[in-house]
Amino acid sequence: MTNTKLKTAIAGTALIAFAATATMATAQGSPLSPGQPRLEQNQPQPPGAIEADGPNVFPHSADFDIQSKTFYAGSLKSGAVSTVGPDGKVSPFIQDPAIVSAQAVNVDRERNRVLVSNTDYGLADRSNKEDPFRIAGVGSYDLATGRQHWCVDLAAILQDGRKHLISDVTVAPDGTAYAVDELTPTIFRIDQQGSASVFLQNDLLRGKLDIPDFLDGVGMAAVEWVDGDQLIIAMAEGSLIRVPVQHPEQAQPVQLSAPLVSPTAGMRLLPDGSISAVSSGLLSGEPAQIQRVQPSDGWQNATVKVTDTVADPVTSDVTEGPGGTTYALSGGLAAFLGGKPNDGFTLTPVETD
After folding, report:
1. Alpha-carbon torsion 143, 149, 151, 157, what sign?
2. How does DSSP classify residue 256?
3. Which H helix or E strand runs over 13?
4. Phi, psi at 133, each rounded to 5°
5. Which of 96, 167, 173, 253 suits 225 as a labelling partner, its CA being 20 to 30 A distant?
6. For the whole model, what pTM was predicted?
7. CA pair distance 160, 103, nearest whole angstrom
8. Is the pLDDT of residue 1 over 50?
9. What pLDDT does residue 84 have?
10. Which residue has better confidence, 113 or 31?
């Protein structure tokens, strides 16, 4: 797909998203209504939004390192991974020429590394602009120095000539990483040394969401390893798939009380074993929705409820923050897809209960 066609397809959505964001931001800044309670000075102040100063970074994913109290955010534009402090200061950290667009970022503190998924929307600085979505990989980088341990080419394993988009990666307690492909029904397994293989290909993982004039068959949007040695996979159209790691052939849908709002974009595993998921308003211009997914019967069933919304419709991830908080990432995806610049990005604290 050419850049002209892509920009035309996304332009209308981007304008809706920007208008909705501006309207809601104005509403949020309005004075208190009569009788509305005010915070007393001795009450703890809730965490505020972090306005990051990274122009044209366009992160799709972020993760938080508890020890250093630092966020790590990838760039769809440059392929770099940057650190983000609570003051919003953005500092480049990983700059690997092998990464075209840094989609998913996962801080693996136990093994002192950062995992980064590699993709190509055709719009990045190092993109193949005439043949996008041919890059599919995961890299591992030292958490202290940003030095590359390895960077594996997952498209070369399949050699199927198809489009690929490694949307997310999670890590099991034994250090094995699992990466999901949004454009094929494929989960990859990657050991700590960077040796990769196909873990599962299953029609349950085949994408069902079509984005007009952009991508058809958009599928796996996010993945988390959960207790019981299982992978929980969020499909873009709003369903969840449960994959037992020891018996992946037994993959099956999670029976949800209600589907997640589509398109589902990112997830965070909460301390109690439930999941917080964000659904983007990219296609509708409506506020992004934060939803809590509470499992039962070992993730055979789950209850879904909306716990918060984010003014920016195009919110693509949720991550842990300081003190056990949860932050939602609005990285400027609509502007990126529409070929527009941006001045930075926002991490917004959200409720997950």
Report:
1. negative
2. E
3. helix 3-28
4. 60, 35
5. 96
6. 0.89
7. 22
8. no
9. 98
10. 113
